[in-house]
Amino acid sequence: MSVVANLTKPCLEPIEFKQIQKYFSDSAKTYETGAQLQHKVGESLLNNLLLNTFENNNRLTCVDLGCGPGLFTQRLNKQFNKFIGLDLACDMLRANTTTNLKVQANSHSLPFLPASIDVFYSSLMVQWCDLNQVLTEVHQCLKPNGKAFVATLVDGTLFELEHAWSRVDSDKHIHNYLTAEQLSYVVDTLPWSNVSLNKQTEQFWFSDAKMLAKELKCLGANFVQNRKNKGLITRSVWQQMEQAYQAEFYNDQKQAIPATYKIMYLELTK
Fold it and tell me: Which domains does the chain have, with CATH numbers?
Protein backbone atom coordinates (compact mmCIF):
# COMPACT_ATOMS: atom_id res chain seq x y z
CA MET A 1 0.00 0.00 0.00
CA SER A 2 1.46 3.32 -1.00
CA VAL A 3 1.88 6.32 1.25
CA VAL A 4 -0.83 8.91 0.73
CA ALA A 5 0.66 11.76 -1.28
CA ASN A 6 1.42 15.08 0.41
CA LEU A 7 0.12 13.93 3.78
CA THR A 8 1.96 15.06 6.90
CA LYS A 9 2.24 12.99 10.01
CA PRO A 10 -0.74 13.42 12.37
CA CYS A 11 -0.10 15.97 15.10
CA LEU A 12 -0.97 14.17 18.33
CA GLU A 13 -1.53 15.73 21.74
CA PRO A 14 0.15 14.18 24.80
CA ILE A 15 -2.09 11.37 25.99
CA GLU A 16 -3.61 11.63 29.47
CA PHE A 17 -3.20 7.98 30.44
CA LYS A 18 -4.27 8.43 34.06
CA GLN A 19 -7.51 10.12 33.02
CA ILE A 20 -8.26 7.46 30.40
CA GLN A 21 -7.55 4.76 32.97
CA LYS A 22 -9.90 6.43 35.46
CA TYR A 23 -12.78 6.84 32.99
CA PHE A 24 -12.66 3.21 31.91
CA SER A 25 -12.12 1.89 35.43
CA ASP A 26 -15.20 3.82 36.55
CA SER A 27 -17.24 2.27 33.72
CA ALA A 28 -16.17 -1.35 34.31
CA LYS A 29 -19.48 -2.34 35.94
CA THR A 30 -21.70 -0.51 33.43
CA TYR A 31 -19.76 -1.14 30.22
CA GLU A 32 -21.81 -4.05 28.90
CA THR A 33 -25.13 -2.22 29.42
CA GLY A 34 -24.21 0.37 26.78
CA ALA A 35 -21.97 -1.68 24.51
CA GLN A 36 -24.20 -1.98 21.43
CA LEU A 37 -21.51 -0.55 19.14
CA GLN A 38 -18.82 -2.60 20.85
CA HIS A 39 -20.76 -5.83 20.35
CA LYS A 40 -21.44 -5.13 16.68
CA VAL A 41 -17.92 -4.02 15.78
CA GLY A 42 -16.24 -6.70 17.88
CA GLU A 43 -18.38 -9.38 16.21
CA SER A 44 -17.42 -8.14 12.73
CA LEU A 45 -13.75 -8.07 13.71
CA LEU A 46 -13.93 -11.55 15.19
CA ASN A 47 -15.64 -12.92 12.08
CA ASN A 48 -12.86 -11.43 9.98
CA LEU A 49 -10.31 -13.15 12.18
CA LEU A 50 -12.12 -16.48 11.96
CA LEU A 51 -12.39 -16.26 8.17
CA ASN A 52 -8.61 -16.33 8.01
CA THR A 53 -7.03 -19.74 8.03
CA PHE A 54 -4.55 -20.25 10.83
CA GLU A 55 -2.64 -23.50 10.81
CA ASN A 56 -2.40 -25.25 14.15
CA ASN A 57 -4.61 -22.86 16.10
CA ASN A 58 -4.03 -25.04 19.13
CA ARG A 59 -0.41 -23.87 19.13
CA LEU A 60 -1.00 -20.15 18.64
CA THR A 61 -0.97 -17.26 21.12
CA CYS A 62 -3.53 -14.46 20.83
CA VAL A 63 -3.62 -11.14 22.70
CA ASP A 64 -6.72 -8.97 23.04
CA LEU A 65 -5.52 -5.37 23.36
CA GLY A 66 -8.03 -3.41 25.39
CA CYS A 67 -10.01 -6.50 26.32
CA GLY A 68 -12.21 -4.58 28.76
CA PRO A 69 -14.72 -6.73 30.67
CA GLY A 70 -14.27 -9.50 28.10
CA LEU A 71 -17.03 -9.21 25.53
CA PHE A 72 -15.19 -11.65 23.25
CA THR A 73 -12.76 -13.25 25.67
CA GLN A 74 -14.56 -16.59 25.94
CA ARG A 75 -14.72 -17.12 22.18
CA LEU A 76 -11.13 -16.06 21.59
CA ASN A 77 -10.04 -18.27 24.47
CA LYS A 78 -11.60 -21.29 22.76
CA GLN A 79 -10.02 -20.43 19.40
CA PHE A 80 -6.39 -20.31 20.52
CA ASN A 81 -4.05 -22.40 22.61
CA LYS A 82 -3.02 -19.41 24.71
CA PHE A 83 -5.10 -16.27 25.13
CA ILE A 84 -4.04 -13.12 26.99
CA GLY A 85 -6.40 -10.29 27.88
CA LEU A 86 -4.61 -6.94 28.23
CA ASP A 87 -6.08 -3.69 29.47
CA LEU A 88 -4.89 -0.43 31.00
CA ALA A 89 -7.71 -0.40 33.58
CA CYS A 90 -7.40 -2.87 36.44
CA ASP A 91 -11.13 -2.71 37.19
CA MET A 92 -11.88 -3.78 33.63
CA LEU A 93 -9.67 -6.83 34.11
CA ARG A 94 -11.43 -7.65 37.39
CA ALA A 95 -14.74 -7.55 35.53
CA ASN A 96 -13.32 -9.93 32.91
CA THR A 97 -13.98 -13.29 34.57
CA THR A 98 -13.76 -15.57 31.52
CA THR A 99 -9.99 -15.93 31.39
CA ASN A 100 -7.29 -16.38 34.01
CA LEU A 101 -4.46 -15.00 31.89
CA LYS A 102 -4.82 -11.22 32.22
CA VAL A 103 -2.23 -8.45 32.07
CA GLN A 104 -2.58 -4.84 33.18
CA ALA A 105 -0.35 -2.85 30.86
CA ASN A 106 -0.12 0.16 28.58
CA SER A 107 -0.33 -0.81 24.90
CA HIS A 108 2.30 1.83 24.15
CA SER A 109 4.82 -0.43 25.88
CA LEU A 110 3.78 -4.06 25.53
CA PRO A 111 5.25 -6.53 28.07
CA PHE A 112 5.93 -9.28 25.53
CA LEU A 113 9.13 -10.57 23.99
CA PRO A 114 9.87 -9.67 20.36
CA ALA A 115 8.36 -12.13 17.86
CA SER A 116 6.40 -13.97 20.56
CA ILE A 117 2.73 -13.36 19.59
CA ASP A 118 0.85 -14.94 16.68
CA VAL A 119 -2.33 -12.83 16.66
CA PHE A 120 -3.44 -9.49 18.07
CA TYR A 121 -7.15 -8.67 18.32
CA SER A 122 -8.12 -5.12 19.30
CA SER A 123 -11.62 -3.71 19.01
CA LEU A 124 -12.31 0.00 19.61
CA MET A 125 -9.29 0.69 21.78
CA VAL A 126 -6.56 2.28 19.68
CA GLN A 127 -8.52 5.50 19.04
CA TRP A 128 -7.51 6.47 22.59
CA CYS A 129 -3.82 5.88 21.80
CA ASP A 130 -0.88 7.06 19.77
CA LEU A 131 -1.63 4.70 16.89
CA ASN A 132 1.93 4.75 15.57
CA GLN A 133 3.38 3.74 18.94
CA VAL A 134 0.86 0.95 19.50
CA LEU A 135 1.30 -0.50 16.00
CA THR A 136 5.07 -0.28 16.37
CA GLU A 137 4.81 -2.34 19.56
CA VAL A 138 2.43 -4.79 17.90
CA HIS A 139 4.72 -5.21 14.90
CA GLN A 140 7.70 -5.87 17.13
CA CYS A 141 5.85 -8.47 19.22
CA LEU A 142 4.33 -10.35 16.28
CA LYS A 143 6.02 -13.43 14.91
CA PRO A 144 6.90 -13.44 11.19
CA ASN A 145 3.61 -13.73 9.23
CA GLY A 146 1.69 -12.95 12.42
CA LYS A 147 -1.48 -10.91 12.09
CA ALA A 148 -3.16 -7.98 13.83
CA PHE A 149 -6.91 -7.46 13.56
CA VAL A 150 -7.84 -3.96 14.68
CA ALA A 151 -11.05 -1.94 14.66
CA THR A 152 -10.93 1.75 15.48
CA LEU A 153 -13.01 4.90 15.10
CA VAL A 154 -12.06 7.65 12.67
CA ASP A 155 -13.06 11.23 11.95
CA GLY A 156 -16.78 11.70 11.33
CA THR A 157 -17.71 9.68 14.41
CA LEU A 158 -20.49 11.39 16.41
CA PHE A 159 -20.53 14.26 13.93
CA GLU A 160 -24.15 15.04 14.91
CA LEU A 161 -23.18 15.57 18.54
CA GLU A 162 -20.15 17.63 17.53
CA HIS A 163 -22.29 19.81 15.26
CA ALA A 164 -24.94 20.35 17.94
CA TRP A 165 -22.30 21.47 20.44
CA SER A 166 -20.79 23.84 17.87
CA ARG A 167 -24.09 25.74 17.95
CA VAL A 168 -23.59 26.38 21.64
CA ASP A 169 -19.89 27.02 22.28
CA SER A 170 -16.39 26.59 20.84
CA ASP A 171 -15.19 24.07 23.43
CA LYS A 172 -14.08 20.55 22.61
CA HIS A 173 -16.80 17.96 23.24
CA ILE A 174 -15.79 15.10 20.92
CA HIS A 175 -12.63 13.01 20.91
CA ASN A 176 -10.10 14.05 18.28
CA TYR A 177 -10.27 11.05 15.92
CA LEU A 178 -7.72 10.52 13.16
CA THR A 179 -8.94 10.90 9.60
CA ALA A 180 -8.89 7.82 7.38
CA GLU A 181 -5.98 9.39 5.49
CA GLN A 182 -3.98 9.97 8.66
CA LEU A 183 -4.61 6.41 9.78
CA SER A 184 -3.44 5.10 6.40
CA TYR A 185 -0.29 7.21 6.68
CA VAL A 186 0.51 5.77 10.11
CA VAL A 187 -0.01 2.20 8.93
CA ASP A 188 2.28 2.80 5.96
CA THR A 189 5.18 3.85 8.20
CA LEU A 190 5.67 0.23 9.29
CA PRO A 191 6.95 -2.64 7.12
CA TRP A 192 3.81 -4.79 6.97
CA SER A 193 3.91 -7.53 4.32
CA ASN A 194 0.20 -7.11 3.70
CA VAL A 195 -2.39 -4.49 4.67
CA SER A 196 -6.17 -4.40 4.34
CA LEU A 197 -8.23 -1.38 5.39
CA ASN A 198 -12.01 -1.36 5.29
CA LYS A 199 -14.13 1.62 6.35
CA GLN A 200 -17.70 1.09 7.55
CA THR A 201 -20.47 3.25 9.00
CA GLU A 202 -22.77 2.27 11.86
CA GLN A 203 -25.71 4.32 13.07
CA PHE A 204 -27.69 3.99 16.28
CA TRP A 205 -30.84 5.79 17.39
CA PHE A 206 -31.69 7.47 20.68
CA SER A 207 -34.80 9.13 22.05
CA ASP A 208 -32.76 12.22 22.92
CA ALA A 209 -29.21 13.46 23.49
CA LYS A 210 -29.46 12.60 27.17
CA MET A 211 -29.79 8.90 26.34
CA LEU A 212 -26.77 9.08 24.03
CA ALA A 213 -24.74 10.82 26.75
CA LYS A 214 -25.80 8.16 29.25
CA GLU A 215 -24.55 5.39 26.95
CA LEU A 216 -21.22 7.13 26.37
CA LYS A 217 -20.78 7.50 30.14
CA CYS A 218 -21.57 3.81 30.70
CA LEU A 219 -18.76 2.97 28.29
CA GLY A 220 -16.25 5.48 29.65
CA ALA A 221 -16.25 6.93 26.13
CA ASN A 222 -17.25 10.39 27.34
CA PHE A 223 -13.60 11.22 27.99
CA VAL A 224 -12.50 14.29 26.01
CA GLN A 225 -8.87 15.29 26.22
CA ASN A 226 -7.92 18.96 26.57
CA ARG A 227 -11.47 20.16 27.10
CA LYS A 228 -11.31 23.77 28.28
CA ASN A 229 -14.32 23.75 30.58
CA LYS A 230 -13.63 21.02 33.13
CA GLY A 231 -16.68 21.88 35.23
CA LEU A 232 -20.22 20.58 35.00
CA ILE A 233 -22.27 21.78 32.04
CA THR A 234 -25.13 23.98 33.16
CA ARG A 235 -28.70 22.93 32.50
CA SER A 236 -29.36 25.85 30.16
CA VAL A 237 -26.28 25.12 28.04
CA TRP A 238 -27.19 21.43 27.83
CA GLN A 239 -30.73 22.30 26.76
CA GLN A 240 -29.38 24.54 24.00
CA MET A 241 -27.30 21.66 22.69
CA GLU A 242 -30.25 19.25 22.87
CA GLN A 243 -32.45 21.68 20.99
CA ALA A 244 -29.83 22.07 18.26
CA TYR A 245 -29.47 18.28 17.99
CA GLN A 246 -33.24 17.79 17.74
CA ALA A 247 -33.73 20.64 15.27
CA GLU A 248 -31.15 19.40 12.78
CA PHE A 249 -31.14 15.61 13.10
CA TYR A 250 -34.48 14.42 14.52
CA ASN A 251 -36.05 11.71 12.35
CA ASP A 252 -39.86 11.87 12.35
CA GLN A 253 -40.24 8.32 11.09
CA LYS A 254 -38.03 6.81 13.78
CA GLN A 255 -38.99 9.45 16.35
CA ALA A 256 -35.36 9.53 17.42
CA ILE A 257 -32.01 11.19 16.81
CA PRO A 258 -29.06 9.38 15.17
CA ALA A 259 -25.52 8.85 16.41
CA THR A 260 -23.12 7.91 13.62
CA TYR A 261 -19.84 6.02 14.01
CA LYS A 262 -17.13 5.71 11.36
CA ILE A 263 -15.18 2.48 11.84
CA MET A 264 -11.96 1.42 10.18
CA TYR A 265 -11.15 -2.29 10.17
CA LEU A 266 -7.46 -3.12 9.80
CA GLU A 267 -5.93 -6.48 8.95
CA LEU A 268 -2.16 -6.26 9.17
CA THR A 269 0.30 -9.05 8.40
CA LYS A 270 3.93 -8.84 9.51
Answer: 17-269 (3.40.50.150)
